[in-house]
Design a protein that fits this description.
Elements (H helix, E strand, L loop, with lengths): L2 H12 L4 H10 L4 H9 L1 E2 L7 E2 L7 H32 L15 H27 L7 H31 L4 H36 L12 H25 L2 H31 L29 E4 L4 E8 L25 E8 L13
Antiparallel strand pairs: 1-2, 3-4, 4-5
Protein name: DUF5671 domain-containing protein
Pfam family, one: DUF5671
Keywords: Membrane, Transmembrane, Transmembrane helix
């Protein structure tokens, strides 16, 4: 309900005008019938020298749903955005003491969460803002205030913890550029949330005072320019983060090809283990890969997962052999760079097309002879 409409109805009723005449005048002036009825219904039909306001329900079930979804999607968006920024920092400033490094495919969950949750959050906030513009009293929702204060407490706690961590690292001499960037990321995310919702609460208190004083406002519920700029900056930041994340992860088709090649490497690795076990039992290499289908060797597959063709197996000497497969990606591509590998050595590097790996049976070492004491 507009403050201006509320003030007009209150003043007209205070001067003794009949409700039907007030309604007709407002409709003729262009107000919507629903708004007029709400304004009239805000005052009790009792005999008293001045208009008596009715108590108003704070929240309807539909509005409670919108508020809950908006805050849930806010938390998901903030966490996912932080995960992505942390990953970008790890890519450009890798920790030399940390095994593995940057792993692009680890971004998929955070990307999917942000792509779904953030637009939904914006939509929910737009719906709530639109409803509040028509009826500013909806901003006084108890559920909304509880969720807002909980969010402020969480954000304040994270900010305090972040500052403590920075100071502790500074005092211990472990402050690095990588750590500072991550600490600043946390501070920027939580600080933005804290500042926005604190401003929102202050704005609601101001509107509540204006409503109580029947102070009309020309454009109730409209955001100040600073809030619009802040919202635009957040949207642009999230959009750029998502786009860069998608560039690192690759398209779904590229990911599918990558998964097929990872399966091929996994199959070849299992075959090498099975050949080692076979040689340990028989002291010779298997003539064909079909000899490894025995349950004792734990081979899941000796065929390509996509084409169904058997992997190529070539015996070179009594204890060396080759395994060949046809690959669809190149390990030198960005999807593989700085990615944790199955072995520390780059044994399974390959290009696009047929690649062969020359391998030697890993023979068990002879048991050591205990020394006589």
């Amino acid at each position: 309900m507009s403050n201006e409409l509320y003030a007009f109805v209150k003043e007209a009723l205070g001067k003794g005008q009949e409700r039907a005449l007030i309604e007709r005048a407002l409709l003729d002036a262009g107000w919507q019938a629903e708004e007029v009825q709400k304004a009239l219904a805000a005052f009790a039909e009792v005999s008293f020298p001045v208009p008596v306001p009715k108590p108003k329900p704070y929240l309807q079930a539909r509005e409670a749903f919108l508020y809950l979804i908006s805050f849930i999607t806010l938390y998901i968006s903030a966490f996912s955005f932080g995960v992505l920024v942390f990953a970008f920092i790890d890519k450009f400033l890798p920790d030399l003491l940390q095994y593995g490094g940057f792993f692009p495919r680890g971004l998929t969950t955070a990307l999917a969460s942000l792509i779904i949750a953030f637009p939904l959050y914006l939509f929910m906030m737009w719906r709530l803002a639109k409803a509040a513009a028509k009826d500013p009293e909806r901003r006084q929702s108890k559920v909304a205030k509880w969720l807002t204060y909980i969010t402020l407490v969480i954000a304040a706690g994270i900010i305090i913890g972040d500052l403590i961590a920075v100071l502790a690292s500074l005092l211990s001499g472990e402050l690095t550029t990588r750590f500072l960037l991550k600490a600043f990321t946390i501070l920027a995310i939580t600080g933005s949330i804290f500042g926005y919702y604190l401003w929102s609460l202050q704005r609601e208190e101001k509107e509540k005072g204006e409503l109580a004083a029947s102070a009309p406002r020309a454009q109730a519920g409209e955001k100040p320019m600073a809030a619009k700029i802040f919202t635009g900056a957040v949207v642009v930041s999230v959009a750029l983060t998502v786009l860069y994340g998608l560039m690192l992860v690759g398209t779904p088709a590229q990911q599918r090809l990558l998964q097929f090649d990872e399966r091929r490497i996994s199959d070849l690795q299992q075959i090498t283990f099975a050949i080692d076990s076979y040689w340990e039992r028989s002291k010779e290499l298997p003539e064909v890969l079909e000899d490894l289908r025995d349950a004792r060797y734990y081979v899941q597959s000796i065929t390509d997962p996509k084409t169904g063709e058997p992997y190529e197996y070539i015996i070179l000497t009594e204890d060396t052999y080759q395994l060949c497969a046809i690959f669809e990606t190149d390990t030198a591509s960005s999807q593989y760079q700085e990615k944790p590998r199955a072995f520390s050595e780059e044994l399974w590097n390959h290009g696009i097309g047929r690649a062969c790996f020359t391998l030697e049976v890993r023979k068990p070492q002879a048991e050591p002879i205990p020394a006589r004491l």
